[in-house]
Design brief:
homodimer; about 375 residues; alpha/beta; TIM Barrel; 2 domains; 15 helices; 17 strands; about 45% helix; globular; glycosyltransferase (chains A, B)
């Protein structure tokens, strides 16, 4: 095991403001050099330097996320490191002055690229765009995330398939842990870029096996990072298993650090996992499902393609503060989808992101007010309603 | 010829504020029930109830057009008359409280639909969407535009092909004139919808033949409408011919009514035609070319796909007031196009529309200041510059 240089790492501050009496839900506040993040938080996914179909202006005025996410794999391929470095990092490049978190590219390497080969050194893979060959190692990924300039960088991990056998999951977890050491060593041996503090979060793996998850939580916790993430969930396992593993991890990870559940999930997943002690979420669901005509609203889920909305001139969602939710009617948005108008994709994406942010902000209010659990139980059937 | 019921038509007011000493350029003001239109004006095309890729919020805050255009043919097919009538018209449906002008559908029937058959009654055509058969007559088109609720409705005309022979152009013009009588008769026999005044503008045709254009101008002028339009230009004829016909029409149409040149054109076309006495323009060029990576800027034309912009982090256009033009860099917009991100289409459309509106507003300022012609001569080489 490598020496622990963590004392050198400039700290991201996490203030735990309140823990719910009747669940493990927490309300907190993360301080970064690009501003505050009130937790629990949902982070819109800005895959390739853009939250799909949403302008930075709309993101701020309609959605108001405290932090967004960028995908290392995508940004590495396009626009590439030379352009991002010349721009002074992703904040400058996309003109976004709030915090940015980058994943490690691991998930995309395993899900998108062809012909990947994993060994101790790292992963050799082919670009899904042009088939060109690239090597990601823990050190290289740290360099890439440094250049992107993320406020929160994620460690490079292997993401085992959802249905992995125990032996594969064990070996994979151990590889992820050895890569984690190399990530921290390289991270601690390199400088923050662009004058703001960069943080490195390690990722718990271990598939659906309790002993592996527990061991991984211990290993990850020993890094004493400023925050910890749980990976490899919502990758095909049944929902109860996801909740069970999430609970186990929350109980094993330190209380005084933010906990980030990667790539989850539906609105009800998010409330359930907040109840288990998760502070940070990201998911492509609001934007991707939005582009496929599914609207999340405070009254339930709408398939806006459906003929029943053809002459429903009521606002998309009068339960949200977002201007879009009041300004555009269901009938109008349905028409835009039917006519193939790009504005439909934008309105649906904005609505869904505004809804996700509303949901976590409401959760936070109720945690602080002390009635989170009863509010959650009321909300979940509404969230699952098909309108 | 039908009796002239125009005395019954509620008037749209046109105040001619200034005519240039050294050209036929004019600055004016049109008053409608949905607000003022300062002329010369460019009208963004909101084809199917949406200016493509641009939200109503962006349209107001970034582009600030005094009026937009809707396409009767497209709106008739989708969302259809039942939905538009139930919505209380297009203003309500798309939530747009400024003036709307609708074309008559004639141009689209001739350019998009299959199997069209023209006779005295009207045009039988097949939808380009599902092949269904429809009949447009002057009376039906008036009813449709009434239901859409346009502030300015256009008469139903035949648009002859660009290279029409004299005989075809003559017969077509005469048919258009007979249809014009029927349009006015039906328009005057029907009521304004939704509580605001609707106006009907006739359209001059006659292809590239001076005597036909002159005769058509006289016929159109005799209608004593609140405004007059010139159709059938920029359909493939050489630029000098377009200018020549435009000048002839401007000289033949009344001075005290706004003159609308339909479907024109490039930025330099617009300045040249303002100099000839045109007050109103529309064109899909800013949005369509924008979606194809062409940016119009105050410094010239940019193909944002080009590698030369890869690391140009300067704003798209620092000569415009639009926030987008300053907020997003050339390198970022190029990246969005390369990565296929929808935001690229939005930024390009907003930039180009903001530029077109800037151009006509600058023209107006210079007409009022008395130096329009020298400004135009300076601008045209800049507008044609390929950066």
């Amino acid at each position: 095991m490598q020496p622990n240089f963590l004392d050198l790492m400039p700290a991201l501050a996490f203030d735990l403001l309140k823990t719910d009496d009747r669940s493990a839900a927490r309300a907190g506040k993360i301080t970064t050099d690009h501003g505050l993040i009130e937790t629990p938080i949902f982070m819109p996914v800005g895959t390739i330097g853009s939250v799909k179909a949403v302008s930075q202006q709309q993101l701020k005025s309609e959605v108001d996320p405290h932090i967004i996410l960028g995908n290392t794999y995508h940004l590495y391929l396009r626009p590439g490191m030379q352009t991002l470095e010349a721009a002074g990092g992703l904040h400058n490049f996309m003109n976004w002055d709030r915090p940015i978190l980058t994943d490690s590219g691991g998930f995309q390497v395993f899900s998108l690229s062809g012909n990947r080969k994993i060994n101790e050194e790292g992963v050799m893979f082919q670009s899904h765009i042009d088939g060109s060959r690239h090597l990601f190692t823990p050190e290289k990924v740290m360099d890439i995330e440094r250049i992107i300039g993320a406020d929160i960088m994620m460690a490079f991990d292997e993401c085992p398939p959802a249905n992995s056998e125990y032996k594969y999951a064990l070996d994979s977890m151990n590889l992820t842990h050895r890569w984690l050491d190399r990530c921290f060593t390289h991270f601690n041996g390199t400088q923050d870029r662009y004058g703001h503090t960069q943080n490195l979060f390690p990722i718990v793996q271990g598939a659906v096996f309790h002993d592996l998850r527990k061991a991984s939580c211990e290993y990850v916790s020993s890094k004493n990072a400023t925050g910890n993430a749980i990976g490899g969930l919502s990758v095909g396992e049944p929902e109860p298993v996801m909740y069970e593993i999430c609970q186990l991890c929350c109980e094993s990870l330190p209380t005084e650090k933010p906990r980030y559940l990667m790539g989850v999930g539906t609105p009800w997943n998010i409330l359930e996992c907040i109840a288990l002690g998760i502070d940070m979420f990201d998911c492509v669901m609001p934007t991707r499902n939005g582009r496929n005509a599914m609207l999340f609203t405070t009254k339930g889920v709408i398939n806006i393609d459906n003929k029943k909305w053809e002459q429903d001139f009521s606002p998309i969602d009068d339960g949200l503060d977002s201007e879009f939710s009041h300004y555009y009617s269901k009938a109008y948005v349905r028409h835009l989808f039917k006519a193939g108008e790009l504005l439909g994709l934008t309105i649906a994406s904005v609505q869904n992101l505004a809804f996700y942010l509303w949901l976590v902000k409401e959760a936070r209010k109720h945690i602080l007010a002390g009635d989170f659990l009863s509010w959650k139980e009321e909300m979940i059937p509404i969230l699952k309603t098909r309108l």
